[in-house]
Input
Amino acid sequence: MLYRMKLGNPGSCTSLTSANSNSLTSDKSGMLYWTDPSAGLVKYDPYTNTKINLGLINATPAGDMIFYKDKLMLAAADGYIYEINLADPFHSTRYFSTGAVTFYGLVSVPSSCSTNKYYGLQFVGSQTVLHELDMENKLIVGPVCNLPFLSYDAASNVDNGSTVGIKIDSIISKPVCGNNNVTDITIAVTNLNAGPLIFQLDGTIINSTGIFNSIPPGTHNIKITNTGACITDSTFIITQSLSTQVNISVANPVYCDLAIGSITVKSPTNFLPLTYSLNGGAYTNNPVFNNLKVGRYTLSIMDGSQCRKDTVITLSCDPLACNGLNIPTGFTPDNNGKNDLFVPYPCKDITDYELRIYNRWGQLVFATTEKNKGWDGTRNKIPQPGGIYIWMINYSTLTDPTKKVLKGTVALIR
Output
């Protein structure tokens, strides 16, 4: 049977599944492997309690298995260490010969933060001889000690092929988005050494969680240390998503009462596609918005990382170019219903409007602050003689409160 027990708690021992084996090990993901006289190589998932028979092995197991460079190694009874073919165990290959030495056990032991040493267990009489193995060069280095008892197996926390150093599994961060300009990062590691880790970001920010907040875009360095004094470091880049510099081209309407303005936008990003929305409308991949009237617009830009940037844009116009009507150059106040008034036709967005008209002697003959009120050619209800008159318009607009002044002449024709 295969049992599971929480270390330090003997009462937690529970049975998992049936197992008939003298060889057992695990890989880095926690999957268990053992040899079975009838089934061959067995793989067992302790998380789902799933057992899979991978097939017979073309060698007789003498004892233990370990992982070396993510390859499953088996001590066999024929004087060889085999490299097991996990996809087809019957076509496993001899890794190297152990000669006259038959190993009943294999074990790996940490020798540094990034390397392991490997040993085989040989029975000699009532003793166990521990031999060092050179797995890289496929040879037995020689005996290192004798144990005064028979040990059929040995195990360590690196039999799965890992080391006691620190392995960075992932550095997770969201792209820096728009004006926010900072992001959070989470660093996940594998560490076989008991005790806390020390994370040091860019040589200054230190914590034991691996979570760092409000980090700007750019190149960063992370250094991690465990209680065994093993150190690893890595450089990573936080990318800028939507650029804070949005290039917007505006074509203002020539005439204030016509929808002929446009907005064109360009925004660099590392995460395509870009989509655009105007005033909360549906997003589109077209960066050009046409047929726009004078007014304020909220442009929303979103990239492939779901980063969004909002920009307020104001379209303005020439306040005296309304629908192509310029200030008249003359009028005929003869009460025939045609061109009887001098009216400048100001636009709707004009504010603080004032029209003044003077004769050639500088006398004020007409004044009004009503945008649609015109001069009928009289002064104090007295018709004025034909001739050239000077007009002056003071105004500002809703989009530009700066006071403006226009001057010109008009011909009164009788």
